[in-house]
Every structure is written in structure tokens, then in C-alpha cells.
Amino acid sequence: MNVMELFRLDGKVAIVTGGSRGLGFWMAEGLAEVGANVVLCARKLEPCEEAAKAIRDIGVRSLAVGCDVTDPDAVKALIERTISEFGRVDILINNAGFIWEEPPEKVSLETWNKTLAINATGTFLCSQEAGKHMIKQRQGKIINIASISGLASVDPELSNTVPYSAAKGAIVALTRDLARKWCQYNITVNAIAPGYFATKMSKYLAEHRQPQLMNSIRMKRLGTKDEIKGVAVFLASAASNYITGQIFAVDGGTVM
User: Fold this and answer.
1) Which one of the listed residues 164, 185, 196, 204 is annotated catalytic?
2) Which CATH number fits domain 3-249: 3.30.1330.60, 3.60.10.10, 3.40.50.720, 3.40.1190.10?
3) Is the alpha carbon torsion for 175, 177, 179, 185 positive or negative?
4) Is 164 one of the annotated active-site residues of the chain?
5) Along the chain (256 residues), what's the average pLDDT of each consecutive run of 10 residues?
6) Element housing 72 (H / E)
7) Is the pTM of this model over 0.90?
8) Where are the domains of the chain?
9) What dihedral do alpha carbons 191, 109, 74, 192 form, nearest 10°?
């Protein structure tokens, strides 16, 4: 297999949660560009359908599914719909997330539980359900989306997102332990810990806290979609077959 073939995903089936916009859509687009068929899911179906159409325009098959990743029945239905439509699931990107900014002393229990449920519990439920099929197939690629805030503390002058940091830290631990448990089935489990990218969330920081934001990024700029797509394709492809349980900080040197 030559190097270009290592990165091809022709005929593979990928699920991307939170795939209707931002990092999720960029990663889905990257997988499609190297041949994968992509199932996009999000709580709101309409923007997901628009995103799926854009993926189909690349020349692969794409399906939009409305799904609340905190609901076990909805997650099971997502995986069953994927199997029914495509016959298999090879790649799962757990990107669905929720962030709330507020000083920790003011965070309500409701906000704490919601943040942990969408980010951490949702990642586990999707991994668990997709993993059942990957175990039967004796192969699979799970890519969890953590965050640099799950790897290091964040300056309060930049953001106050303690529940989000805790949830992303849980994803880091889940990634490492799940990788250990499932490597016997030829399933790799890795995580991407993005820094600040040119998305809706970082746009607010760039507009209102520019000095603090740029001071935290060693490369002094936001990440671009190509810089997240490439990592996602690498971890979804045969090029990363001997890598599992690893956390890849894609952050312009923010955490080092």
C-alpha cells in the first residue's frame, strides 16, 4: 500500500455527531473528500440535512439523522439506521458538545449536568453502541473530540467554562481506558483536543477578548478547517492503525 492509499477511505462508513456545522462538518467534509460515506447527526435535523447535501455534492453518500446523544434510545436508533442504510459502521467521530460560560461559583447543577451529559455521557453512549458493531466486525476507528481545556487550566480572563473543562477531561480518560479495553478487537480509540479555531465559539473570543486569546496561542492565530480535517482523516485511516489511546492537541502550541 503506497502512502496515498493509506489515507483513502473509499467504501468506509463514518458517523459524525454534531456534524451539521463547525468542526464537525469540517471533519465530515474531510472524510468525504477521501471517499468515506458519512452519516451526520445533530439535535436539529434541518441544518443536518443541509450539511448532508453539501457532503453528497462531493460525490459520496450521506445521510442526516436527528439525534440527542444523551438519549440511549436515540443513539441506538442512529446506529441501527446507519447499519440499515450502509451495512456497517467503520468510523465514529464523537463531536457533539455543549459549552456554557459562567464563573464556577455561579454554575447551577442543571448546567453542570447538561454539560457533562452532552459532552461526556453522549460520547460514551455513542461509542458503546457503535462499538458493539465494531467488535463484531473486528475493526473500527473511534475519534473523540476532547479540548485543550481538558488538558490544562484556562485563564479566567479568557473564559470561565469549568463544567466544559471537566467534561472534556472525562473524555480524555474515557479515550485512554476504552482504547485499552477494545484494542483486542482491532478498534482504535483516539482523541483530538482542539485549541481555538475559526468557529462561532472562538469568534466571540476573537472579537471581545483578542489580547487574552492571542497571548494564549503560541502561533498567534486561530486554526483553520484544513488543520482539523487532516488530523481527522489521519486518525480515521489505515495510516494510524498502530496508534491508540492517544490525545492529539491541535492548538497552535497553546498546550506544550
Assistant:
1) 164
2) 3.40.50.720
3) negative
4) yes
5) 95 97 97 98 96 98 98 98 97 96 97 98 98 98 97 92 97 98 98 92 80 92 95 98 98 94
6) helix 72-86
7) yes
8) 3-249
9) -10
